[in-house]
Every structure is written in structure tokens, then in C-alpha cells.
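Sample entry (307 residues):
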Amino acid sequence: MAIIGSGNIGTDLMIKLLRSDGPLRLAAMAGVDPRSDGLARARRFHVPTTADGVDGLLSMPHFADIRLVFDATSAGAHRANWARLQPTGVRMLDLTPAAVGPYCVPVVNLDAHHDVNNLNMVTCGGQSAVPIVAAVAAHGIVSYAEIVSAISSKSAGPGTRAGIDEFIETTSAAVQSVGGAQRAKTVMILNPADPPVLMRNTVYCLVDGNADHAAIEASIADMVARVNAYVPGYRLTQGVQFETFTAESPLYIPETGKFTGTRVTTMLEVAGAGDYLPPYAGNLDIMTSAAQATAEHIARQTVGAAT
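Predicted structure, serialized as C-alpha cells:
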């Protein structure tokens, strides 16, 4: 497999793949800046590199042996990269918010996408929040979900900053289509604090009618444990909070009027593994870890189908 993009996300993913003893073998890294730290590190690790982007990757003599490509560039670049790679039949995991292919959040819907050639890994906020919304939606109707995602500004590279609009749109769409919320809103914050702070996500869900608080709390705890299995820094910062609104004391929502039911508030923290950037860059870690887990699953399924 190969990585396109030698920035923060691509470099972190490369290091994870090289340290792993799983079924994945990194065959190339492609970038567009010959002076990038990512390409320099790849060369030190004896990974074949090119600074000519997707065209350079396609011209590599061993490209025909590559079965899967990670795209860690930007939303706009991914669309161009996919246009070049789609005719080759190679599979692609898109770590940008381009959303060309269906959304994939491993613990929620990976099994539904075994044969898709272009999978979108949503966003760091989506990988963090969608599992929680899905856990709540398993025990009630989530009429509205709101995600507040705060990351250190030091962990946000040029691609992330250029794609903030796509980040918001893609995260909200995935919260609905994968998480199961009827409506969704996403807020992204680049926190300039120094020293940098860890990634924090707050997930609000409005559950219609009478909600089983114990069942929702247990469902969230189970989902956090499942995400933590491949993102060890993913955890709750405090217990799940419940607030009930009755007909006598409803919650007023400007867009829709009075709401009766339960507001479920889940507060999360994501610490990075420190493979490339320090632990404050949990937003990198949750994306690259989710992509790695997805690729390993695909590789095992492919090998299993061939035997």
C-alpha cells in the first residue's frame, strides 16, 4: 500500500504502519514538497518516495503491486487524486473531508463497506463523535446532535485549516447518516493555548420521549471501550450527563420550538500516541488509527476471501 500526502497526518500514519506487525506493508509515500519532513523521514526508513504527487506514484515501477492507497492530502486534492487512481482499480482510504465515497467509522459501519473502492474516514471530530451518537441512537430517537470539537492549533496543518468548511459539513453529515441523528450541527475550535491542550469533544444528543438512561450510559461505555481498542487515548473525561425536559418544563429550541425528552451530554478527550507529533495531537491519532484499523480489516478480509 501507499500514502499520498507527506504532511502531519501522512507522516503519523507512515510511522504507525512501519511500527505495526499487522498485515499491512508500506510500499511508497508520495508528496509534492521534496523538502517535506515526511518524505525525508520516509527515505530514512527506506520507503520509496516521490515528490511528484499522484502522477509520481503512478509512474513507480512497482505501482501495479499496490492494492490500497491512503489519501492524507486535502479535500480538493483528493478529488483530483481519485480521478487519476480510480481507473487503476486500486482501493483508497480517504483521510480528507472530501466525502467522495461513503463514510466509514470502524466501530459503527465498517462491515457494510467490504467492497467499496473509496472509503471516506470522515474527520477527527466524526471519528470521535459518531460512535457516541450511534450508541445513544441505539436506545432512542436522536432528534438532534451537536458536536463541539476543540483541537490544538499546533496540530492543525495547512490541509486541515484549508478544509474547515468541509470538516463541518462532512462531520455533520456523518453524524446523521452513520450516527443516526435526525439533525446535526458541528462546531470546530482551533485552540491556541500554549502549552497545547489535548483534543476535546463534547457531544450533545436530544433524545425524544422517555429515555432509558441506564441503557444509554451502558451503550456509551461499551462504545468508548471499543474505540479505545484501536485509539488508546480515547476516553471519557467524566460521567455521562442526563437532563430531562418535561411538558411542564420543556427545552426551547429556536429552530424547532419546544422539546421534551432527555439531553445526553458526553465529554471526551483524545490523547495522541506521540508517534509523530506530541500527545496533544489526538486529532491526528484518531484519524490515522481509524484508517489503520480499517485497512487491516480490509486486508484480512481480502486474504480470507482468497484462501
